[in-house]
Amino acid sequence: MTTATTSNEPSQIDPKEGDIDGATGLELSPEIRKRFLRVVDRSNDSMFRRIHEAFQWRDLLFMLVQRDIKVRYRQTVFGIVWAIMVPLMTMAVYWVVFDKLGRMGPDGMPYPLFLFPGMIVYQYFSSSTGRAANSLKQDSAILAKVYFPRLVLPLASITSPLVDFLFGLVILAVILAIYKHPPTWEILLMPAYLSIAIVSAAGMGMGLSVLNSHFRDVTHFLPVMLHLWFFCSPVLYSTTDLVPEKFWLFFALNPMVTACEGVRSCLLGQPIAVTPEMMLISCSVAVVLFVSGLVTFMKLEQTVTDVL
Amino acid sequence: MISVENLSKRYVLLRHKAHDRLLSASIIGMAKRAVTRPADPDDDADVHWALRDVNFEVAQGEALGIIGRNGAGKSTLLKIISRLTRPTDGRVVTRGRIGSMLEVGVGFNPMLTGRENVMLSGVILGIKRSEIRKKFDDIVEFSGIRPFIDVPVKRYSSGMRVRLAFAVMVMLEPEILLVDEVLSVGDAEFKRRSSARMQELIRSGRTVLFVSHSKQVVEQLCDRALELDRGRLVSIGATSRVVEHYSSANQEDSRSGNAFVEFEAEPEKAMCIREISVITINGNCSGEIEMAEPLLVRMSYDINEDIEGAHAFCRIETGEGMVVLSSGDADYDPAHLGKRRRGSYTAEFQVDGGLLEAGDYRVSASLGVPYEKNFDRRPDAVQFKVVDRSSRRRLWYPQTRPGLIGREYPWVYEGRAPFA
Q1: Chain B partners within 8 Å of A7 (Cβ)
Q2: Chain B nearest-CA residue for A19
Q3: Phi/psi at B77 (nearest 5 deg)?
Q4: What distance in Å separates the CA atoms of residue A143 and residue A38, rounded to the nearest whole number?
Q5: What is d(CA A138, CA A222) in angstroms, rounded to the nearest whole number?
Q6: Using CA atoms, how far apart are residues B377 and B47, in angstroms rounded to an integer?
Q7: Is the pLDDT of residue A57 over 60?
Q8: Mind giving me the DSSP string for A166-185?
């Protein structure tokens, strides 16, 4: 497998004859010679090659996700139960404040039931983005000492909160049972809507992770932005109830709008509260975020070790 | 096989102000550079060329030693070859999987158990999970910490941690091996085993690039060697010739800024110093020690006659010559001032982390009968720096603190405190 030595020209590097020296022991089979040929120079490897390499290191991704989860719940008294307790407690707080004190939910549906799906989706998004943005800084120690495809770090960061999301689904099942609200076949569509959140988080995460290594402003402004973003997403309220129709298309620029409403409608068996045009806009924005995040990452990735 | 072609690496030195990482400072920096465009890159004082036009080849199966003073660019060269950083110019072509042993204990997380850390560290180093599982027992045996393998690593002593990390690292079996001086770590017994294993790996027929300060070790293990000085390749060829060139070039310069120094054997002296170095627990001999880290002062010496009443003695002094501490190998036990046998010996003592304040230090060593006579003396033998890169205090007190002791002492108020 050859690589470009400058960004424009392909290089031909032929394995030289006489590479194998029987006298000194370790022989390079022609397969290894070809497969593990590397050229390191000032240009970056092609984007495709780097993504492929990240895939080859999926073992590492798996171990990093494992590490994240284990470290989070070790040495706590409740351990993994916190994965359940936190969403429940958050929901209870929102329930009291936004439903009991000022009706925000749709009439006819118990607020906790309405609230929960959107909440766990947003929780996934904000958790992923936050962790991914920090991923390179946090593991700067290993970045500087061993080589591995950097992309694995933000990708691992957006994968481990999925586990929390799954726990959330388990709790949701319990809540559905309590309110005697049976699930419909539409549950199967849920991953499609969730993927909008995953794609957006991936894009944001990749882009912010490299930017964060250069500019520490990111650490300061991200939590605030995610907080604001939360209120701009239909978690506590439904789009149709609170947002005037003329603003809908603008509102849909937030990919979490479709993600939250979509997941909610699937899990609760309700018709979705966004129009197809809004869905299209949300999905497009998600893709744009992903692509721009990926490109930013690819461009700045190599400078990170010099700066961290 | 490795081929290095016209390799250069330039670092632009950023001035460290409190806000040096913020967007504002970067933009200002870019604007400044645009306006005050330097005519010749060499004139730009803010620039440091870690490597300049380095060219060489390593044949398949060859072990090449890399020697040079601290800051000569040895570690940078390995970093570029192992793809940790990009060159500013030139390129490196390699064939075969690359394994780098640049530091022990990569990726260890204190909250995870030894077992979990072995898996994680192995995967970070590039070994597949299935392979780690197969070799797991070997790793545990080698490290000698079997009873503790399921205990969180934060409960391990630093020696245990290093042993486990090293055991994982030596399971790497790549075609190309890049080693930065990690030859032996841990306590005496483990040092022997780890040194033996490293030598085994290096002589196994792989292509090896081996960075070291020690001429002896390089001569022992490497077929060819090259010398770097301030980023440039100054000599390459048969190990003995390159080593000779390096020794002669550095003989006159006693303040070489090195954390490692070797001396020839002098059998006419009753005792003579062979080697002095300052290293971290991980076996790193870069001359820079993080303030919070413990440091080890190692000394090797020969005893050529039957001796009585003598001791080995070291002093750590500041850059200006003020003695900070002194320690001798008979401090703990007066019996050590008795008879000593002939032979070659190596010893070290550990200075706790967080004791020395950031700054430049030097080590002087001597062998002799206390208060009476010296058999061998090496004043200012090695230099090292203590740097503060990770204390919290540094964030709001960016300037260097005066003083020799770097400990932090909490202030306790009686009754009320003035702050919220």
Answers
A1: none
A2: B60
A3: -60, -45
A4: 19
A5: 16
A6: 39
A7: yes
A8: HHHHHHHHHHHHHTT----G
CA dihedral B196, B202, B206, B209 (to 10 degrees): 160
Contact status of A9 with chain B (Cβ, < 8 Å): no
Q: Distance between CA atoms of B100 and B115, rounded to whole angstroms? A: 22
Chain A, 129 to 148: residues with Cβ < 8 Å from chain B are 141-148
Check if B404 contacts A (Cβ < 8 Å): no
**Token pair 């620039």: residue:** B47
The CA–CA distances, whole Å, from B85 to A209, A248, B363 equal 17, 47, 33
- Note whether A306 contacts B93, CB cutoff 8 Å: no
Tokens of B252: 């006159």
Q: What is the pLDDT of residue A124?
A: 94
Say whether residue A230 is in contact with chain B using an 8 A CB cutoff. no
The Cα B337–Cα B88 span in angstroms is: 56
pLDDT of residue B21: 42
> Token pair for residue B109?
């997380």
Q: Which two tokens stand for residue A300?
A: 């700045």
SS (H, E, C) B28-80: HHHHHHHHCCCCCHHHCCCEEEEEEEEEEEECCCCEEEEEECCCCCHHHHHHH
* A5, A24, A142 member nearest B107 (Cβ): A142
Contacts of B345 (CB under 8 A, 6+ apart): B300, B301, B302, B303
What is the identity of the amino acid at B5? E
Of B61, B94, B124, the CB nearest to A26: B61
| pLDDT tens digits, A211-233 | 988 887 888 899 999 999 999 99
Q: Report the gap between the CA of A293 and the closest CA in chain B (Å).
A: 18
Which H or E run contains B382? strand B373-387
Distance from CA of A70 to the nearest CA of B (A): 8
Contacts of B416 (CB under 8 A, 6+ apart): none
Structure tokens at A93: 């707080």
CA neighbours closer than 13 Å in the CB half-sphere of residue B263: 22
Spell out the alpha helix ranges (H) of chain A: 30-35, 47-56, 58-73, 82-94, 111-138, 140-145, 152-178, 190-214, 217-231, 239-242, 248-251, 255-268, 276-300, 304-307
Supply the DSSP symbol for B205.
S
* Alpha-carbon distance B372 to nearest alpha carbon in chain A (angstroms): 48
The nearest CA of chain A is from the CA of B414 a distance in Å of: 34
Q: How far is B5 from chain A (nearest CA, A)?
A: 10
Nearest CA in chain B to A215: B22
Q: Which residue of A has its CA nearest to B180?
A: A145
Amino acid at A110: P
Q: Which range, of A75-79, A161-165, B368-372, averages the lowest pLDDT?
A: A75-79
CA–CA distances in Å: residue A246 to residues A240, A242, A243, B382: 11, 12, 8, 75
Does the beta carbon of B84 lie under 8 angstroms from any beta carbon of chain A? yes
Query: Which chain A positions have a beta carbon within 8 Å of B10's beta carbon?
Result: none
Whole-number Cα distances in Å, B158 to A92, B165, B294: 45, 11, 10
Per CB-CB distance under 8 Å, the chain B contacts of A141 are: 106-107
Of all residues in chain B, the one with the smallest CA distance to A75 is B111
Domains of chain B from N-terminus onward: 2-252 (3.40.50.300), 260-387 (2.70.50.60)
Nearest CA in chain B to A148: B124
Largest CA-CA distance found in chain A, in angstroms, rounded: 83
Over residues A240-259, mean pLDDT:
87
Least Cα separation, residue B30 to chain A (angstroms): 13
pTM of the full predicted structure? Answer: 0.73
What is the per-residue pLDDT across B349-364, written as a single tens digit (0 to 9) for each? 999 888 998 888 999 9
Q: Which residue has the tokens 């994982």?
A: B168
